[in-house]
Amino acid sequence: MMPFTLANVVESLFLGVALAMDAMAVTLSNTLCEPDMPAGKKLAMPLLFAIFQMAMPIAGFFGGTLIAPLIEAYAGIVSLVILAFVGGKMIVEAVRELRDPEACDPTHLTYATIFAEAIATSIDAFVVGVSLAASGANIVLYGGMIGIATFVCCLAMLFIGRRLGAHFGSHAQIAGGVVLLIIGLKAFLG
């Protein structure tokens, strides 16, 4: 197992930020969709995304070599289905709100939805864990840095999304739904 060196810390941080991109986009989309969400939901997003982004490479590191081909084969379709459902629902609700401002349900973003998004955005981290095992990387360092980077990046998206959502309302919700659909398609296609 590789030691903790400055180069490994920097590399694991960059890997963490790269893996956090989908979680950041989903956090931004959710915040645009519900700019006045309760504090519990605000904290649940970076926390759940960070936990799953940290746990999946660790799972891939220790057990992934046996089931990595199966996960890799179906990761795209699973991500697409989850994110297309959530994104499509956001778009439909935003269009409904634009037509009838009283029709939008401000509580559509549930903890179950956030949990599903955390799984969908962290599937690729599992495969990264398999490659970390093959390279002999220090999984404690890499897993920890991936989790920390995801948490910090998603917290930043909460602040950005709240400001944008207050200005753009339902149009921002539509944009957020489209972003989720694009992320799902990206995961499916490759």
How large is the count of helical segments?
A: 4
Main sheet properties: none
Please provide the ordered H/E string of secondary-structure elements: HHHH
Number of separate strands? 0
Q: Name the helicity range.
A: over 70%
The helix-and-strand class reads: mainly alpha
What gross morphology would you assign? globular
How far apart, in Å, are the first and last alpha carbons? 30 Å
Low-confidence parts: none
Query: Quick check: average pLDDT?
Result: 80
Strand content: under 5%
Radius of gyration: 17 Å
Notes on the structure:
The chain is an all-alpha fold and 190 residues long. The protein contains 4 helices and no strands. The protein has helices at 6-33, 39-99, 111-135, 139-189. The chain starts with 5 loop residues before the first helix and ends with a helix. The mean pLDDT is 80.
Summarize the model shown.
By secondary structure, this protein is mainly α.
Layout of SSEs?
Layout: H1 6-33, H2 39-99, H3 111-135, H4 139-189
Helix pairs in contact: 1-2, 1-3, 1-4, 2-3, 2-4
Question: What keywords describe this structure?
Answer:
single chain
